[in-house]
Batch of 3 targets.
Target 1
Amino acid sequence: MKTMTARNTFIRRAFSVVAFVSLPLFAQAAGGGGNYHMEPAPDLDDKPSLQAGFATYVNYCIGCHGMRFQRYERTADDLGIPHDVALETVVPAGKQIGSLMKTAMDLENAKKWFGAPPPDLTMVARVRSPEWVYQYLKSFYIDPVRPFGVNNTVFPNVGMPHVLMDLQGTQRMGCVQKPVILESGAEKRDPLIPGKAITEEKCGELYVEDGSGALSAEEYDKLVYDLVNFMYYVSEPAKLERHALGVPVLLFIIILGVFAYLLNREYWKDVH
Ligand code: HEC
């Protein structure tokens, strides 16, 4: 009887260790950006996406926003870009591979030009959440009253111009025809014309003028996705290493667990 109790205790302990070790997995799965969504979720294993985001960032953002805690070298290494390729294609002329990703923008002037200085974006994906940044970059719309002619539904009256407008196209806020959605989540269909959805006018919606941007809606979403994925990586570069370590560590724990179990059985074998 005594041995049974000891063994049960062992199993219970082993179980709680496994449960404890796997807790962070669930914590990660539960993470999110509140009301904002981004699909698919950021993926630090998607190197081509991170590389594309890196290039977009340097082309479109670094003129105003630095990442003063991040070096080009570290970025190239983490993203699997050889140094000579990085220097040739992404790193701005005159910068070294070891340079910090600072902006050349003069912050005193910037305050006068934009009303607010463009903040450093090293940590923005962590402070705001990747989902927020993703929706922010998709939510600029024409507003003639604003100094740069645009406003933003995620960040009302923001001081930033819509620097990706040539790519996205002219986005406006107005009234559009949208399918009526039933309680079940399905689109309401016309009972007389098979396959035809019933629409209603909705106002205060964002829509892009047909053909006004260099990219299609899907291409623009992908560009912003890659950019935000990159900003998410920068906000926590150590995550890449932790990801890489996670699987071996779990394997180690499982293998160790098997041996511990066998050893435990061996010890108790003769007691019966
Ligand atoms: C012409 C200068 C300029 C460029 C280029 C620019 N921004 Fe901005 N951005 C600003 C300014 C100015 C603000 C601050 C606006 C405010 O606080 O009203 C800002 C704010 C932001 C914010 C909000 C930061 C926060 O947490 O408050 C994000 C995110 C951002 N920019 C991302 C980007 C990205 C990504 C790019 C490249 C695609 C980019 N910006 C390009 C000027 C710029």
Target 2
Amino acid sequence: MCSKAVKWSAPILVAAAVAAAAISAAAAQVVSSDKLVQERQRDMKAMAAAAKRINDMFKGTSPYDAKAFKAAAESIRAHSGERLSSLFDGSVTAAGSKASSIIETERPKFHDLAAELGVYASALSIAANRNPDVLGPEMRMQGGDAMMGGPIARKPQATRDVASIPAEHAFHMMLQTCTSCHAKFRLQTE
Ligand code: HEC
């Protein structure tokens, strides 16, 4: 009776084992994509916090501190480019993520925006080196720079003359890069 029971249950055990393996593989996948989504969102939040610190210094709501300014710029730079792109490799959409599947079909544009972010962040980091004590007038947008939307506005070639524009202008261009990427590649639903 005992051996009969074993015979009986063997196929069931095999089936159960296969099912269990399938379930744990699926669970592992959910966990890993969950982790990736959390990482993306954590990175994005870190960039938002860093951008706010820089913004507060331009606004004068917190005192200029070249080291803190540079650290914030470096944080954004470190989270940009390849690092940013790689968090959206492969299949992009996932539960809890607002990443749009358009990323998969327009990767070059996504990569460009991620890289552009790094170029502006580097320019800000260099500006902090050049201005160790005060957020001086040469860091400020003025004249034509302030009229970014006007006829004399020119969008600097991200890789070419970004170092020659005032830091505040580079900062605004950087925020526009955040916004452009979100407008195109982040789902707008709440
Ligand atoms: C190359 C594209 C791209 C750039 C550039 C970019 N983002 Fe994002 N951002 C995304 C995508 C896609 C998501 C949605 C991620 C998700 O939910 O998986 C996102 C989400 C976010 C979120 C929400 C995170 C959360 O907790 O859900 C914040 C905040 C954010 N970004 C801030 C920024 C800031 C600030 C910048 C610029 C300094 C920036 N992003 C630049 C693509 C970008």
Target 3
Amino acid sequence: MKLDDYLSPEELKRLASALLVVLGFISIAAFFGFTVVPGLRYQAHTTPDAPIQAVQGETGWLDPTDYPAMAREILPPIDPATVMTPNPKLMARGEALYAQTCATCHGADGKGNGPGGTGLTPKPRDFAVKAGWKNGTRLEDIYRTLDEGIKGSSMASYNYLSKKDRMALAHVVQSLGTFDHGASDPKAIASLEKLFASAGEVIPNRIPVARAVAILCREYAEAKPPAPASTIR
Ligand code: HEC
């Protein structure tokens, strides 16, 4: 039984060319399915110049306001007189720090309406409103907030800043909330004064989180031992 018994040479030729066209389509589809589409998807994930998106609720983590790189500092004890009450130098320092570090969430004038704060739950505190403060509005309360952060919220601890910087910020926060902050507890103020006067501090080297992640990834790739021979086979 031969193929020629069933098909004339012309029909055979037509069949072969139809088969060729079908195979052509299949290979084009396979090319798109296995190469082009995954390639596009990969590119969409790794566009190198895409702006870094802030991740909600995780300050500093791939955040556009990532910590700036700073060299290690050794700071002497502070004279409490220079930080317990506002003075122009301290306020200027605090305002610059506020604009750089806090305004993204709390807004330039502390109304809790910064671009980084939209969509956060709970919302960044509106410093112009007295109600709802969790730690309180007294100097020692705000210092504590900056020292420890507020658990369960995006308000992180800022204890990577020096004590003096945290005090400067506490005064700035008070200046943005011009309502009565209540009387400070003399004991709390005395213990803050003692803390400032008693010991200097060492602020370690700091690099942006994004850079730290890049370095860790590189070091891991370099340190990763080659796969044992048995798994290569
Ligand atoms: C990532 C956003 C974010 C940044 C940046 C941020 N905060 Fe906050 N902050 C919050 C949120 C959210 C709350 C509200 C927390 C809550 O209600 O539990 C808050 C609350 C506060 C409070 C009120 C605490 C209380 O007693 O209720 C103070 C004071 C404060 N922040 C100061 C600062 C200062 C100063 C900076 C800059 C060093 C700063 N924050 C940076 C999000 C932020």
